[in-house]
Amino acid sequence: MMTDAATTPATAARKAWMGLLAKASPQRLQELWAAYDVDPAFTWLRPPEIGGVMVRGRMGGTGAPFNLGEMTVTRCALSLEDGTVGHGYVQGRDKVHAETAAKIDALMQGEAADAIEAAVLTPLRTEDSQARMDRAAKAAATKVDFFTLARGED
Amino acid sequence: MYVAVKGGERAIDNAHAWLAEERRGDTSVAELSTDQIREQLSLAVNRVMAEGSLYDPDLAALAIKQSRGDLIEAIFLIRAYRTTLPRFGASLPVETADMACDRRISATFKDVPGGQVLGPTFDYTHRLLDFKLAADGEVAPAATSEPRTEPTPHVTGFLGQDGLIQDETPSDETPRDITREPMSYPADRATRLQNLTRGDEGFILSLAYSTQRGYARNHAFVGELRIGKVAVEMEIPELGFAIEIGEMELTECETVNQFAGSKTEPPQFTRGYGLVMGQTERKAIAMALVDRALRWKELGEDFLGAAAQDEEFVLSHSDNIQATGFLEHIKLPHYVDFQAELELVRKLRAEAEQNVATKEAAE
Questions:
Q1: What integer best gives the mean pLDDT of chain A?
Q2: How does the average pLDDT of chain B come out, rounded?
Q3: Which of A26, B66, B111, B344 has the most CB atoms around its CB within 10 Å?
């Protein structure tokens, strides 16, 4: 059930960066964040906690949902001194990963957005799409090219 | 009556210390890191995640190390850890049609749109031991070509367009969760699929094999097998919209089974479905075959008395943690139980001897 908010451009952008941060390698994110070298003051609204999310599939890929099993997720929420709230929802059990994601989520809603986009998000996005392309290129090399041998009586 | 007995504590502590030492093995051999297990024993990691029912490769690698490679013990560790996690919610159903496929094959249509992509498969290897692996770990880089950009639609979709295969009815019904509610019978298909996807690979494989050999005959074609990554999205209440919270590698198998029709259904192909965490294709194919066999009732087929059709038999014996827990508990002390049995046998023997003696005296 998507709310109307999900369709606005601002929401679409936020969905995109939160998804990117959730899937990022914690080590790589930390490197880029450390290089950006800004650590905003904040207060916890919800300190990082590790939990599970039940992942669902659909019967036959398109039918009714069923429970496939859980995945580990770490989440937190914080607020910057100006009151901006940032949420971190990241895959795995790394609390620092969730904290950094929440800080970036908060900062991305303010004036630092362009700088963080350039210093952190763009490199993550580029590397992620490069990694995907590398895998897709290896898969493509294993695609079967069928050919039919000439057959017949003559 | 239970009688408390003490005295095992020191022996148990020492046994565990020795276990730790044996786990480490010869210390002149380098210790295995969990990173090495995750990267180089990834199919074992996948099995532990699938049957442990928790997607976390680092934890699965740790469990494999801790269990000395006993995968059922590793699955036990993951299941135990899983119960300690607060549940944040449930994801939206994953869209396997959008999977970034490493592998995608169809045994039914040669020229399927998107193509036959073999991926990193053991198929077509000669199953000869490769002694080079014992010598060094150098590998040549894999070949690459232009990445495919065309969509990779589900094969069953083509049959569906002509009405030749039974439709899946989309719904947003919340499925029952066997980690929250105990199994009860009859079980709906969502419950069966959750049970099968975390069930023991060996058990599901053998049941699937039994259907191929004629017990609940359902000749299955692999309409499609695909392996790759999908995004996992969840509605976040505090945000009011859904975000991607991660991604997971999945194996999906759709079987196409011939079906002559029944009192309730026209002649058409029917489906079996397998979806399993990680690269786990043997399990996914087996799951699809067992799913199809268990659907006999809803398709109006006859019960042929086959084990794979008997949902209570299948679902209550598929879980290797339940099975091993019950199996292995019988090795633990049963001294008092056994004393009672011993007393009973002695008494019966004494009675039997008494009867013989009385009978002889009478003659």
A1: 93
A2: 93
A3: A26
Tell me the pLDDT tens digit for each residue of A40-68: 999 999 999 999 999 999 999 999 999 99
Residue among B172, B178, B203, B182 nearest B192 (CA): B178
Domain boundaries, given as residue ranges, for chain A: 4-119
Residue B151 near chain A (CB below 8 Å): no
Given B102, B241, B246, which is nearest A23 (Cβ)? B246
Nearest CB to A137 within list B147, B231, B239:
B147
How many domains, in total, are found in chain B?
3
User: Cβ B117–A51 below 8 Å, yes or no?
Assistant: no
Q: Are residues B208 and B106 located together in one domain of the fold? A: yes
Buried b (16+ CB within 10 A) or exposed e, B181-219: eebeeebebbbbbbbbbbbbbebbbebbebbeeebbebe
Report B:83-112 residues touching A (Cβ under 8 A): 85-94, 96-97, 100-103, 110-111
Distance CA B219, CA B256 (A): 8
Q: pLDDT tens, B198-247?
A: 999 999 999 999 999 999 877 899 999 999 999 999 999 999 999 999 99
B73 shares its domain with B185: no
Q: Taking CB atoms and an 8 Å limit, are A58 and B239 in contact across chains?
A: no
- Provide the residue range defining the domain that includes B359: 333-363
Same domain, B165 and B74: no
